[in-house]
Structure formats: C-alpha cells, structure tokens
C-alpha cells in the first residue's frame, strides 16, 4: 500500500505533473455548475487539480486523509483543506453543490461507500463528477499493447471498482442520474511494453489482479515479445462522468 505521506513531495511529478492536472481541471470545469457554488474535492491529494478549480464566487474545499498531501494542498487552496476519510466525510448532508472525485475509485476495494457519502453531502440538483475506467484510459487509441491485452481486459475490466457500469449502477440506486461525459489527455503518460510489465508486476493493473497467474504470465510474455520495448505508446485518455442528484 502506497504511503501517501512519504510520497507527497514527489507525487505530482511521478503522475503527469502540471500538464495532466491542467487537463483534468479543464475537463472538470466543463461539468461544474456555473456561477457561485460550493465544490468539494474528495481525495484532493496535493491540491494540484483542486487549486485550479478556484473561481470568484466559488468556494472550493479539498478533503484528504493524508497530512502530507494536505500540507501541500493548503498552499494551493489556502484555508480550503480538511482532513477526513472519503467514507465518513466531515460535512453535513446537503452541504455542497458539486463533488469532484478524480483518480480515487480505481484504488478502492469497493467504491460504493465513497459514492454513498458523495451523494449524501450533495444538495438536490447538485452534481457528482468522477473519473471512471482509469485503467482503460491507455487503450482509447489502437496500439499493439491494446491488442495484446484486449482479451484479458474484456474478461476482467467489468470487475474493477471504477468501471462505468458499476459506478452507474450504484449511483442510480442513490438517486443520481448520468447527465454528461467528457475526456481529457494524460499528456506524456503513454506506457512502453516494458512499463506495462513493470506496472503489472507491481500490482497496479486492476484487471490483472482478477486474472489467474497463468493468464497474467501469458500476457506478460506477449508484451515482452513486442518491438520497441522502451517506446511509449499513445497517451491515455481519461474519462469523466457527471451525475446529477
């Protein structure tokens, strides 16, 4: 399990830095309510996206359970960060106009408790904006890696916690409805075949964690046989959905 306090200082640089954060914030902005409103960013991390959502008349609050991350976020959202758990948010019901969840659900064993808390703190008519299908972001464009991994992804991707199907099923039960979608690029984050094998070995690829050892060994072998082992393939295209209360 990643120690986010220890990783905080180098976290942004290892995950796309300012270009990815700028693209993410611009995409979130397209889905946010216009005019004065209160926005809660769950698992805000270092605040690299949160700070870019600040606007005149808009109150933005970031919540995270890592003191190390919040120490950095406080510099980007002065007075606007709170320590808290995404499954037990320190906010009243019907407290905010928008909830933002970027790159969290894919890390969870179960997304349902976090989605339920997000729905609880939303005012009627508010919007929940979340990333979905993170591990599929790398396959928006065709590539040899996309073809090599296609069968395994098709069989096991539905089981990952941030799959669109799973998220929409849960939020429908909570009374939320899909109203919009958008995408944004992970500039400079394309992975090489070697990079994919390393990510699989590190347990970072959710659909591989559901596959059998023999299936994982086979896909690793096929990745190792691809040409240009250190050449990055297409950048990922991340997906966001907007869900109205």
UniProtKB/TrEMBL annotation:
Q: Does the keyword Transferase apply?
A: yes
Methyltransferase type domain ranges (all copies):
40-129
Q: Which GO terms describe its molecular function?
A: S-adenosylmethionine-dependent methyltransferase activity
Q: Which ranges form a coiled coil?
A: none
Q: Name one GO biological process term.
A: methylation
Q: Which SUPFAM superfamilies match?
A: S-adenosyl-L-methionine-dependent methyltransferases
InterPro entries tied to this protein: Methyltransf_11 (IPR013216), SAM-dependent_MTases_sf (IPR029063)
Q: What is this protein called?
A: Methyltransferase type 11
